[in-house]
Amino acid sequence: MAVSPFRLPSAVVPTRPPPGPAWGGLAVVAVVPLALAAVFGAAAVAWWGRPDQTLHLAAAGAAGALALVALLGFSWHRRAVCAAAHATLLQSVMDGLPEALAVAGPEGTLLAANSAFMALSATTTETRVAEILASHCREGADTLRLRDLDAAVRRGEGGEAFVFFVDDTLGTATRVPGSGPGRAAPRLVSARPIAGGEAGVLVEWRVRSAAAPAAGIHPWRDLWDLAPLGVLLVDGAGALLRVNLTLADWLGHTREMLEDGSRHLRDLMAAPPPGDLFPERLAGMAEVALAAARAAPLRASVLHVAPSSGGTLLFLGDLTREAAREEELHRVEQRFQRFFQFAPTGFAFLDGEFRLVECNPTFLAMAGAGMADVQGQSIASLFQKEHRANLLARLGEVLDGRPPVAGTPVEARLGGAAGPVVHVYSRRFDGEGDGDERGLILHLVDMTTQKNLEAQFVQSQKMQAIGQLAGGVAHDFNNLLTAMIGFCDLLLLRHKPGDQSFSDIMQIKQNANRAANLVRQLLAFSRQQTLQPRVLSITDVLAELSNLLRRLIGENIELRMLHGRDTGLVRVDQGQLEQVIINLAVNARDAMPKGGRLTIITGNLHTTEPIRHETEEMPPGDYVVVEVIDTGIGIPPENLQRIFEPFFSTKEVGSGTGLGLSTVYGIVRQTGGFVFVESRPGEGAKFSIHLPRLDEAALAQAAPAEESRDRAPADLTGMGTILLVEDEDAVRVFGARALRNKGYTVLEARSGEEALDLLQGDQGGSVDLIVSDVVMPQMDGPTMIDQVRRFRPDVKVVFISGYAEDRFRHSLKDGAVVDFLPKPFSLKQLAAKVKEVMEGAPRTGA
Question: 72, 316, 361, 405: which has the fewest Cβ within 10 Å?
């Protein structure tokens, strides 16, 4: 199509013309130079006739130049005023047009427009005109038509497109009856190339309202163009007569190009078959390859060939895109299957009757069953009976559209007693068709590990709370028992076995010792007793205990001991270990009232993985294991979690204190070991004790300490000055009398402050040993000793306390050396400890 000449309505006009120069500018560009020219002219006349004509000539030249500048300024200003007036006139003419008018540059971007077109787009940036118009059109055929029109004018052609604008923004002059904001208004968009001079080939765009489709445009064209099929009309020889926009879009051509009369059916084929290609021939072809302009050949299926009055209609389906959609659908399905199969949580689909339709492998692993076992079964049958009612009630609520609070699961246990505890989340889904039933999607999260950790935490908190209570009670009792046992020892010094009071005193002391043993059990449970560990062989300890154990369990119970080869050594308090074995043996005896067999097995265990048992986890390492197995009545599951609690007992009232197994637990844990129990009703019980096995380095380090401990002094008398610091009067009086009886000079203090005053007085320099309580009001023992070390760094110290030594060790400075004697203690134990420390090497500490 030839390029139209440039004419007035199509002139390239700025969207808003710039203002012309004001008349004040004339003074600058014309009047000022003219005035200066007059000045220089007058000077030239004045200097005429002088001998030296240089000034005359210079003034005359300047006057002429300024006059020329003035004339040019007048000419420039006149042209500028005319151009501004012309631009204003052109803009006024364009704004007065009853249609939207825009001029686009060679790249299709907006250069100029009238006010009607500017109502479509407030932007003055370089936006493509076709894009501005397309943004107001309906999606689909209208945008395709505008795209084809834009492509045509860029090829130097012109044309029209009948479209519908969604919003009527062209103003009152172009509004059609019934149109309004938000309603579709018919518009006729025309475009043609025009000559733009130095600007190159421009494009004139016009938009006018159209109350009815333009000639040659029928509303049914939308159905033709928007069909998801490629439709073409050919004559009997195969020449293309008409194509829809869908097919043109597939091939990458404009419809005008395909309908120019020069195209044949063969031209559309990427690999046309030999011979004449008539439309009827395509009816026998299931698939053809179309030649696309901008991509690889397009696979299309021949859906229908229909003769009509104007030729033959061909309907083609896009196999390439269909194959791409199928491939994408396949990829999506594969991704879902991978997610479904390998998800760490369980998924299941249920029908409306709560029957299992499908589930993933994780769900089957949780349920401990195969697909054949669970498919079609009620979901409730997979859970324990006590959880089924609550689960079904929740699923019914969700299925009926009454979901609970978002994110609230149902907690239930799958399978038998050892099945996992899960949180069940449920969501309803509705069928897509009339015959599809609604159902449920279940999401199961295994909470077993978390529940075990929670139970372990609760159990440890409970045991710690009971232990703190027991430890506090034991401390107060130890002070009382120290005084009772101590004064009994003092009385026994004056009352010999032949004295009539001797038996009474011994009864008091024996009962005090029994009370002390009960307190030790409380401290053992709370892990606050003071241990005296030494390197032992488990087999040797059991050999020494065997006779005692046989007497304890009775003749109707068989005792068997099976020792492993090369059983390792452990470092434990022998008395406490014997207490553990005795308590377990007595507990087994009570579980076998009609007789049975008690088996004790020893051996070594090396593990590289943590061992979890119920609520406790044992780290990897080397252990010496002692298993105590009975054939008794067993322990009910509800009691297994409580057997180590103090005072918990299933025996009759008065048959025991309920501290036997709690003592076992406390001693083993304080030693650094672990104790586990396995039992079923009617099948007996097995207690497994795991104690850390000593390596060679630990044995070498422990040997010197063991030798020094074995050397106990025979003579308990001595000499020297001892400062006894104790806030309990009874304990202090007994201790002072006991030490004086052994030959020592004893100074007494009721508190830490009183002891400091005494040490800084005249008698302080003679003190050889300080025996002090740990817990005292105002100033405790460790704080007092810390201050004493500042002026008496060489003084020896023995702490006495009803608490364990570990309770105050952290209060001492690093490097501080002190000895410890636990309460309750006898006169002999006090004298032996003082003798040991007084005869030892001087003790210094930081």
Answer: 405
> Could you give the CA distance from residue 748 to residue 732 in angstroms, rounded to a whole number?
8
Question: At residue 504, what are phi and psi to the nearest 5 degrees?
Answer: -65, -45
Which pLDDT score, from 0 to 100, does residue 317 have? 78
- Retrieve residue 217's tokens: 């445009």
| pLDDT over 70 percentage in the chain | 70
Model pLDDT for residues 185-195, shown as the tens digit of each residue: 778 888 888 87
Residue listed under structure tokens 């059609």? 176
Residue type for position 49: G
Q: What is the pLDDT of residues 770-799, one digit of tens each?
A: 999 988 888 888 899 999 988 888 899 999
Q: Give the span between the Cα atoms of 280 and 282, in whole angstroms.
A: 5
Beta carbons of 667 and 467 less than 8 angstroms apart: no
- Bridge-based pairing of strands 534-537 and 569-572 is antiparallel
Asked if residues 740 and 746 have their Cβ atoms less than 8 Å apart, the reply is: yes
pTM, to two decimals = 0.42
Which residue carries 């709690």 as its tokens? 662
Radius of gyration of the chain from its Cα atoms, rounded to whole angstroms: 54
Task: Give the mean model confidence (pLDDT) for residues 72-81.
Answer: 61
Whole-angstrom distance, CA of residue 390 vs CA of residue 447 = 18
Instruction: Find, among 460, 675, 461, the residue nearest to 583 by Cα.
Output: 675
Distance CA 398, CA 393 (A): 9
Phi, psi of 638 (to 5 degrees): -70, -15
> Quick one: CA dihedral 599, 600, 606, 609, positive or negative?
positive
**79, 149 Cβ separation under 8 angstroms:** no
Q: Is 391 exposed, middle or buried (0-12, 13-18, 19+ CB in 10 A)?
A: buried
Closest CA to 572 of 529, 514, 513, 615: 529
Residue 163 belongs to what H/E stretch?
strand 159-165
Report CA-CA distances (Å) from 715 to 495, 712, 788, 835, 839. Answer: 21, 9, 30, 8, 12
Name 675's bridge partners: 689
